[in-house]
Amino acid sequence: MRVVIAEDEAILRRGLQLLLEEDGIEVAEAVGDAPALHDAVERARPDLVITDIRMPPTHTDEGLVAALRIRAEHPGTAVVVLSQHVQRRSAGALLMGDRGGVGYLLKQRIADVDTFLDDLRTVAAGGTALDPDVVEVMMNRAVRSDNAVARLTPRQREVLALMAEGRSNARIAAELFLSEKAVVQHTSRIYDALGLAVDPEAHRRVLAVLHHLNG
Amino acid sequence: MRPSPMPSSMSGSLSRALDVVLVAGVALTAIELSLLPWDDPSLPLLIGLALVFLIYVGTGVLAWRRRPTNRMGALILFGGVGVYLAGLQNTEVPALVAAGLAGSTLILAVLVHLLHAFPSGTLRSALSRWTVGAAYVNSLVLQLPGTLFGPAGQGNPLFITELPAVADGASALQAFVGFGVMLATAYVLIRRVIDARPGQRRVLTLLYGFGAVAALAISVIAGVLGRALEMPPAVVGGLQLIFIAGVPIAFTVAALRGGFARTGELDELASWLGSASGGRAPLSAALARALGDPSLTLWFRMPHSDRYLDEHGNEMAASELDATPPPSRGSVPIELGGGAVARIAYDAALIVDPEPVRTAGRVVAIAADRERLIAELRVNRSELTRSRERVLDARDQERERLARDLHDGLQVQLVLLAIAAQQLAGDPAAPSQLAARATHLRKEIDAAAADLRRLTHAVMPAALVQHGLAAATEDLVDRMPITTTLGLGIEDGDCSPAVERTAYFVVAEALTNAIKHGSPTRAAVRLVRTGDILEIDVRDDGVGGATWHGGTGLRGLADRVDVLGGRMELTSAPGDGTRIRVELPCVS
Q1: Which of A11, A71, B17, B368 is most deeply packed, by most CB within 10 A?
Q2: Domain that holds residue B329
């Protein structure tokens, strides 16, 4: 896997690079602002871009804008956007393309290295990774405004939240101390309850769930 | 004398005098009509000429009444005298015919006078005075030899004897002087059109154009059309009459409607002073209207200096007032108690005589002093507001910088520390007990990072800086622990950052208070921009009873709202929920 990193804090950029390289991931370039990111992507054509949302020159959301542009211009390049604070609106913007290959995580999640690397692989493989924080916001809203979600059992909601974060069945099973078979049963009940067609492709199933929650 | 309800007894007296002039004009017309030869074939033209005199009287009186100190009205009436004299030639009374012959071309000289004197009624330059003087000499003096010594005319009571050489010489001289007058007049008028302000240029061009055509028509029309084209005398005479009648109408309309000065209408000022101060127009507007100069401005003297302020808080030195473009500005001081309290700056091309301006200044001196104090207060207040805005802005910038420093510094440190802890936990060489403690440490660091995120968010939310008010409020509502609806009628970037931030902090504070003190089950937030007003409405169904005080932070927000020129309203009856409404002027 070839990765380009965009992060304006040099020390964090370096730390992230070492972290990835230790795991055998090739870091093609590590840059400090959005224009440099654009050039690096043109040169390196990476499988994955990891970008900070807030970078020079405006220190607002140029990382998000760059990520959306990269997804539009290079469908083969997945993007993970890191931020100090996650918002439903930005998640919605990233999911709009309906194709997967996007991730949106709090910066602090880097520290849980194994989970973070898992998320990178999921996204690079065309899946999605959403921060638990933003998923919580989406779930809270859905529970209040969507009767189908409100009627789910607490356990089903836990499974749904982990699905929305982009976790695999095996990972959900491990986190909730369930058998994988039990997870599959839960997920199929959730699909029934939300009225979603069961897609054999796992990533597309997750996207359907996310759109339902975000709807 | 009976106390008069009129604001000025002078204007009442003028008005009555003008009524008398009007009646006299009608009487004179009746006399002239009665003296006309009723069997003459050109009788309709003769009657027409008598009626044209009435037009001069009517328009002259109207102009005089509407612009009492402007001499255009008097001049038009004088033109009427010329017309009347011309009409007298047609009577059968020898003395009247003599007077008529003497003044038969007076109307041409008056026309030249009118053109030079417009719009103030006075002659402004030496060239104008000489030219108009020459025109009068031409029409009154040089006209005489032809009458006295010309070919023996039928019924010419002034005829003395036939001296063709004298008559022809005078006629040639008259033509020569007349040509010179025309040239000088053309030069003066063209210069004036060039120098005029754009708003006046059109009126001047039309009026001068008409004046030139009328002068040519009245003097030449008879010769060219009558003799060369052999038109019937009735038609030629009718055309002349139309031009002669058009002169006073054109000048009166231009003087009254063309935006030119009327001077000294102090009645209007008096009634302005008498009107309730709340609803009256600014003093400078009242002066501008009364003196007929729309460009007039009033400058108030600042204390202990020679600098002046206008109503909008602009500042200028006394010396600059006369020097500001357009070049022909004049200014006179308004004095009260021995010193100048203000200056009236006016268009000197429009108002030649500064005396009426000075008089108007004396009338409004006390009012001007009052306005001066108000203007001073306004300057102080706007300075105060500006400084409060600067304080607010500086505070926001400080918050933003603090949030950024926390994010860039501490947050990055915490991420790196957590990575280090996690690497320690994942080290295959580490004993399992140590690995467990390292993982625990990493989670503690994550928790600290989460606290830091909350803190930074409270100081200056990233969403507000990154996207704007709508996104940040949405984020706020998203994270509410109770059902909260959001009505958004704004776009990000609609209003200035200061307004957006204030609106955000109002919503945040209101929701925080609701959760902390109100135990509501539902809340509603509405942000709508209507025209230039941003309306903020936050409601909850909690216990109510919120006050401005008691640590709610509402007091500080009310100050913020006040600095931005907005207003804030708190409705919170006990047991009936709380509603906070704020209106902020929204400029992007």
Answers
A1: B368
A2: 278-363
